[in-house]
Model the fold of this input.
Amino acid sequence: MKRDARRYDGCASRLTFHHSHLLKNVLPKVKGVTSNPTERQARQFLRAWERAKRYEQKVKRLEEAVSKLQDERERMVAEALMDGEKLYMIAQELNVSRQTVHEIKRSVIKKLAFELYGEETKASLLHK
Done:
């Protein structure tokens, strides 16, 4: 019985090795993928840099739009949100309720959407 088990283990390991070799030789090779790690890292760096530039442009546009807000409370709420402050902290700062800050935030978002995205935003908001 033990001898049969050892034979089975030996055969199984040889078959596994043999089949893995066959699979490697039969499967198609990947085309168009660069195996050069330096080039791959350079591409990743360029993608990250381009993404950062796009974010920088979006933030500049957003800051310009916030500076055009007429209402002082709306401008303060928008700037505080962009700085990462929580609604309850903003409410304490302005001496209003959180619900009021939430309503101001909704108003700011609508105005900024109109400023940044123009007519396409107006059309989509009117159809809802």
